[in-house]
Amino acid sequence: MIFLGVILLLWVCSIRAAGARPPSYAAWAADSAIARGQGNGLDSNGQPTVSYEHGEFQWALRLLYERTGNKTYYDYIQKGVDNVLLPNGTVGGGYSLILSESDPVFLYLYTTTKEIKYKTAADEFRAQLDIHSRTAQGQFWHKIQYPNQGWLDGIYMGEVFYAAYTQMFQSHNQSAWVHVDVQQHNPNVCYYK
Ligand SMILES: *[C@@H]1O[C@H](CO)[C@@H](O)[C@H](O)[C@H]1NC(C)=O
Ligand SMILES: *[C@@H]1O[C@H](CO)[C@@H](O)[C@H](O)[C@H]1NC(C)=O
Ligand SMILES: *[C@@H]1O[C@H](CO)[C@@H](O)[C@H](O)[C@H]1NC(C)=O
Fold it and tell me: Origin, by domain of life (predicted)?
């Protein structure tokens, strides 16, 4: 009898645990990060911050939104980006010549909303690429404080945006395409498969 009772208890507990589970590990992880306010465009003092960690999280939420259709994730991306933008699209957060992953999110929100402030923000980051320091071979320095260093993660931080922006707004700009290509195919700067 006691044995049966234990079995029954375990069975009830397992049903309750299963019922509490989010639909996937991805949703579970995202919900957990959202509940802590991570990746929302604000630093720990509540000030706007342009940071690649936030951009990366927003990119992941985009994939989750596309997979689940759950607008909670889309809304969180938009809220996070709006936290770093002034209403006219000027980017806040005291950024200065950094390659970040926030910039592709500007393009994503411009595509989905057609709100001009997201294009203004993308334009601002695109203009920054023209003056971002680069090696003699043309690769962007990873950061201003790392002279002549090209890092692999700089490729997806800067180049994804560079290519996406060029495709959306300047698809005939050959010098931009050549420069995009230099970021990954110049054997002197970095090589990966
Ligand atoms: C969307 O996700 C949120 C957060 O996990 C959840 O609370 C909500 O129930 C989901 N909405 C739908 C329609 O599945
Ligand atoms: C946007 O607004 C801010 C604050 O009012 C201002 O400093 C900035 O020049 C404006 N940007 C543009 C592009 O008008
Ligand atoms: C084309 O791309 C180059 C290289 O990024 C840039 O310097 C130039 O301003 C772009 N041309 C136009 C018309 O935007």
Answer: Eukaryota
Q: How far apart are alpha carbons 170 and 161 in whole angstroms?
A: 13
Which range, of 9-13, 74-78, 120-124, 176-180, averages the lowest pLDDT?
Answer: 9-13
Q: Which two tokens stand for residue 146?
A: 């790392």
Report the domain count for the chain. 1
Which residues constitute the domain of residue 113? 24-185
Q: How far apart are the C-alpha atoms of 44 and 52, rounded to whole Å?
A: 15
At 140, is the pLDDT very low, low, confident or very high (cuts 50, 70, 90)?
Answer: confident
Q: Which residue intervals of 21-113 are DSSP H helices?
A: 25-35, 52-68, 71-84, 103-113
Tell me, using a 6 A CB cutoff, whether residue 31 lines ligand 1: yes
Q: Which residues line ligand 3 (CB under 6 A)?
A: 130, 170, 173, 175-176, 179
Percent of the chain with pLDDT over 70: 80
DSSP helix/strand/coil, 193: coil
Q: How far is it, in rounded angstroms, from Cα 49 to Cα 120?
A: 17
Average pLDDT over every residue of 64-93: 93
37: left (phi over 0), alpha (psi -120 to 50) or beta: left
Ligand (nearest to CA of 89): 2
